[in-house]
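Lab notes, practical 5.
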Amino acid sequence: MEEGPAPKPAAAARGYWRWSKEDFFPEQSFASWGAYRGALAATPARLRDRLLAGRSTDAAELGAMRRRSENEMRRCLTWWDLTWLGFGCHLGAGIFVLTGLESRDHAGPAVVLSYVVAGISAMLSVLCYAEFAVEIPVAGGSFAYLRVELGDVAAFIAAANLILESVIGTAAVARAWTSYLASLFNRPASAFRVRAPWVAEGYDELDPIASAVIAATATMAMLSTKGSSRLNWVASTLHLLVIAFIIVAGFLHAKPSNLTPFVPYGVPGVFRAAAVVYFAYGGFDSIANMAEETKNPSRDIPLGLIGSMSVITAIYCTMALVLSMMQPYTAIDRNAAYSAAFGAVGMRWMKYVVAVGALKGMTTVLLVGALGNARYATHIARSHIIPPVFALVHPRTGTPVHATALITAASACVAFFSSLDVLASLLSISTLFIFVMMAVALLVRRYHARGMTSRAHARRLVALLLAVVGSSAGIAACWGAAPERWVGYAALAPAWAAATLGVQLLVPVARAPRRWGVPLVPWLPSLSIATNLFLMGSLGAQAFVRFGVCTAVMMLYYVLVGLHATYDVAHDGSGEVEEEAVDGNAVADEKAAAAAVAAVDVEKSTAGGQ
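Output from the prediction step:
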């Protein structure tokens, strides 16, 4: 079914290519240096306003926020597209690189269990994402969901971490692409990089190929969403065939004796490895970001997200088992695990198969990442946290060209200069932190509604949520400090269960999902909080230090720029979003949201008839 023409904007718009100051900073706070100094002087009051009154609504996100893009994105994706996009964004170099590294250093053959633990935790987060994406099918993903339930400040923290993650992750994959290309030609990993001795160490291996690959996949994402989906489907099919061949060939040379000892580093090693391999599961937020272009969100998103994650978890565990049975964990090569394992059994030519599979996988990861990350940046720009020019959707392609170019430029620059050894550890901790926030936001959504939930029940919910988060963090801290001491677990695990039960029994449900919802609430979201915090606690102290420093830098940008832009939009009387959001009555909000969802259904029917 071919794409139809992009829907025309309701009102005549200016040209798409705009570069004036008003397009980047149209808010009153940036009208002059004097206005900006006045805005900075009012920072404490404005920050208090955004903390206390910065929540949006479903209707605002679905309605006026989307209209700020001036042109609509095309509803052209089905559950089939989303499932294959899920394969494309996950099955990259991570499984080839992380499995050998974590098996050798932290888990041994029990790296299979590490993938199981990480997969279960990821699936809990997928359920939370799926409910939000069905209820609020917009391009903003976690940013939009957190803005509705936890407010502007929490949404910004998530947004900043996800943008950092997308830039670093894209750059890391692109540089790995260059390394695997070199291995395909029997060259050292850095053979195709340009040595620059005049640049600081760690930044002196310039990688123009990585930057070119990022630009090529981003160009495809700019031209057509459906075309990108079709290309991903073809490439992912070939990649799955390569993976199937690797699995079969590996089992033919497997030795069960290599699984002994199964847990050589103990249970702590299994969870430490799980926290690291979790990064291999982190791409599903890109799929949630495609909700605005999905024909039938209430059906397609749960099928696409849950279906792809289930298959991916099975593939990861099977590939980890193959590697563990082919070689003793002490003999696994940290840098080229699968190629070295096949070489050890006389199949040296398999390194070319592995390299081709990794290259195909990384290409689809970059393509799907370009799609999802640009949609995320688009919705952030709709809120004016970053310049609103990046919110514009191109009238001909129906894609966010400006936002795609923004993420592409940043990623290509990082990939060109940096080996990312220092920043790479931020990826898992940022992802886990955002997933904790998402689970908390889902509980807030189910048990708190403006104008309906009493103050007593609201205070009770806050206290119980703090108890859930605090007990979960305590369990993670106990594990990180002294995993063999059971006293802390004996006190904190019942506290977590009691707090979760308290949410279920002591706080009335304020809102039921309109279409599709997470089962066993509050237990599954609470378990998601616990597992994600537990995996965070399994990471090293340096990861937390870097995470804290980066978050502080991000908050500095928010205080200097983002806070004043969003405050002006909320209070200048010209923002449609705020006119829809200030009602504060849950019944009115639900009616408005239902009307917005009905409008989405009309778009869905129109898209289905094209």
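Observations recorded by the TA: The first helix runs from residue 21 to 24. Residues 243 and 315 are 8 Å apart (CA to CA).
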